[in-house]
Each structure stands twice: as C-alpha cells, then as structure tokens.
Write a structure and sequence with these properties.
Number of helices of chain A: 12
Shape of chain B: elongated
Helix content of chain A: 55-70%
Strand content of chain B: under 5%
Largest sheet of chain A: 3 strands, antiparallel
Number of helices of chain B: 2
Strand content of chain A: under 5%
Oligomer: heterodimer
Order of helices and strands of chain A: EEHHHHHHHHEEEHHHH
Distance between the termini of chain A: 35 Å
Number of strands of chain A: 5
Structural class of chain A: mainly alpha
Radius of gyration of chain A: 24 Å
Order of helices and strands of chain B: HH
Shape of chain A: flat
Largest interface: A-B, 29 and 21 residues
Distance between the termini of chain B: 16 Å
Radius of gyration of chain B: 15 Å
Largest sheet of chain B: none
C-alpha cells in the first residue's frame, strides 16, 4: 500500500522541480504517471495492434501540467511517505499490462482488419486501445486517486481533452463524405462572389471549376493539418502559461480555436480559388501547400492575439508569476 | 526573434522551390517531407509569434 499515516517524511514527497521553478509536485503521482507512460509505450511496442498516440499524449500532458503547477497541493496529512507503490500494487500493475499485451497479441489476427478503419469496428478497436490506461489505477488506492483528481482537476481535464482531441484524423476521415460537401459548398458560396462562372462538381472530392483554374478539394485539404498545428501551438501556450491561465476560459478558447481553424481552412481554399482564377493560377499550383502553412500560422497568431489577454489572469498576478518562474 | 522568424519564412518559401528545382530524373521531395518542413516552419512561426506576444504581455 502506498498510503501511510507517517508524516515525518512529508518533505520527501515533494520535490523542487527544475521545470516548474518554485513548484512542488508530489513524487508518488509523478512516479505513477511516468511508470504508466513507460508501460503504455512498452504495450504498444510489444503489441503493435494497441498502437495509438492519444494515451501517451494524455499522460505526457498530465505529467507536464502537474510539474508546472506551482502550489503545494497535498496537505501533509494526506501524503504517503514513499513515492514507490507497494509490492502488491506494483505486481498488479505489471500483471495487468502483461495480460493486456498478451491478449492483444493473441487477438491481433482477428483485430488487424479493423485497425485504422473508419467503420464501427475500427472505432470500437480505437476505444479498446485506451484500456492501456486502466492498469494505472492499480498504482494508488482509490481514495488516493480521488484526492489526486480533486486536487488536480484542471490538469485531469486538460489530459482528457488531449486524450480525445489529439489527433482526430480517423474521426475526420469518417465524416469526410459529409464534411467534404459542407466545405466544398462553403468555399463555392464564398468564391463565386468574386469568380464569375464558377462551377461546383459534387463528388467525394468536390471540384470547383473556374475559368482559369479548377480546384479539387481532397481529404488532405480537410484542415486536419491546421487542426494539428493548432494543437501543438496551443499546447505550448498552455504548458508555458499554465499558472497564469484562467482554466475555464482556456478550455473555451481551445474549442473555439479548433472551430476557427476549420473556418480559416475554408477561407484558405477560397483564397486559392479566387487568386487562381485572377491570374495567379501558376503560383497557386506551385505554392499552395507552403502558402497553406503560412496561412494556418497566421490564423493561429491572429486568434491568439485576440484571445490571449482574455485567457490570462489579471495583469498583477501574471507579472508576479512570471517573476517567480 | 527576428532571425527565428526570418529562418522559418525562408524554409517555407524555399522548400517547395527546391522540390520543383530538382524535378525530373533527379531527386524529388516526397509529399511527407514537404509536409514535415511545412508543419515545422509553421510551428516555428507560431511559436515565435507567441513568445513575442507573451513578452509584450509581461511588460
């Protein structure tokens, strides 16, 4: 068992993290998370059918945010005196991972045809892959987990958001037949205001047929790249400014930002259609990929400029936190 | 910071040019290489912009 009433060694449970400046993170929690991260990576290495980056991103996000948290959160009476789990808990944790790995390897021939597919079976398999997180529960008593999740609720929610939204390529692929038409019609509606004679060819990959340039919207144009870029950059903001952020506003800003990236993607393709049909067809053909990246960067920066002040705490506390960091 | 922005800009602008310049029998940059350079440069630009914004708010 990890829990103990011995409070004499309380100071050993918190350590000064070089990453967090003055922050103190409970060692037992960090150890459990790091152990979990390593075990999940091992599961995926030895049973490749379990491969998905979401749980790794989520655990990594939780670790980083716990490290970033500045306040000492667990009162002395609530902390165990060793960061190591008991032998029984460690054995249960390792056994659970071993069983998961062996079962996954055994079921691989049956599950392989479903892997990566956008069918119901593929989605169920993707959900089952998240089971690699469950053995982590064995590392601490349930009461301890409840306390941890209560104290680190913001970090837990952030990790959950990461688990769900990093990176939804499969989800986007599955809704492409519908989303592709919405995107195509949106671009067509905007472009035809500036491009007379523009036509729309309905297909799985819709084509906008202009006088000088035809633009076919393939799945690569879905905006998933902008979505991923937004995830990376917003994560950077969240990790570096974690102690200065208003958490509820940050959550709203994140989801609104994803929507902004999708709208920005529609504007990006509209710009290609309009410019390509106004004498820049050759340039658009050659540079639309890199121009797209610049556009996505611009959208992100514009969005951040608009929301950064709103998601930050008041100026005084921000400057104070900056000084402490 | 300005150098970082300029470097990122140069990568974005020159990468597709080099891909087309070696067209034909010579090496041609693969789509995933292009995408890698693109996302890397875009992330650099975004990160540089964020650090500028952060510094401005800290002042």
């Amino acid at each position: 068992m990890v829990s103990s009433n011995n409070t004499s060694g309380v100071s050993r449970f918190f350590h000064e993290s070089p990453f967090s400046g003055h922050g103190r993170a409970p060692r037992f929690l960090l150890f459990a998370l790091l152990l979990s991260f390593a075990a999940i990576a091992a599961d995926q290495f030895f049973a490749p059918i379990l491969h998905t980056t979401s749980p790794l991103w989520a655990v990594a996000a939780f670790i980083l945010l716990v490290l970033r948290r500045r306040e000492k959160l667990l009162s002395p009476g609530e902390t165990p005196d060793s960061f190591l789990p008991s032998k029984g808990r460690a054995a249960a944790f390792l056994t659970a991972h071993l069983v998961l790995m062996i079962t996954a390897r055994w079921l691989t021939p049956a599950l392989q045809p479903l892997a990566g597919k956008t069918t119901l079976g593929g989605f169920l398999l993707a959900g089952v892959k998240l089971c690699v997180l469950l053995p982590t529960l064995f590392l601490l008593p349930l009461s301890q987990w409840k306390k941890v999740l209560k104290l680190y609720a913001s970090e837990g929610i952030a990790a959950l958001v990461v688990l769900i939204t990093f990176f939804p390529r499969r989800a986007l692929d599955s809704i492409w037949p519908w989303y592709g038409q919405v995107l195509g019609h949106t671009v067509y509606s905007l472009s035809r205001l500036l491009v007379p004679g523009l036509g729309y060819v309905k297909d799985l990959t819709p084509t906008l047929s202009g006088p000088d340039l035809d633009v076919t919207i393939v799945q690569g144009c879905s905006g998933i790249n902008g979505f991923e870029l937004f995830d990376f950059l917003f994560s950077l903001v969240v990790v570096l400014d974690w102690n200065n952020l208003r958490k509820n506003r940050t959550l709203i800003a994140y989801f609104a930002g994803l929507l902004a990236m999708f709208l920005g993607n529609a504007l990006r393709i509209t710009a290609f259609v309009v410019l390509g049909n106004h004498g820049l067809a050759e340039s658009i053909t050659r540079f639309h990929v890199s121009a797209g990246w610049i556009f996505f960067s611009g959208i992100f920066l514009l969005y951040l400029c608009l929301t950064y002040g709103w998601i930050l705490k008041k100026k005084n506390s921000f400057v104070e936190n900056q000084r402490q960091a | 910071m300005k150098k970082l922005l300029m470097l990122a800009g140069l990568i974005v602008v020159l990468a597709p040019h080099s891909a087309f310049a070696h067209n034909g029998k010579h090496h041609r940059m693969r789509a995933d290489e292009m995408a890698g350079i693109g996302i890397g440069a875009a992330a650099l630009i975004g990160a540089a912009g964020y650090f500028l914004l952060r510094r401005r708010h800290a002042d």
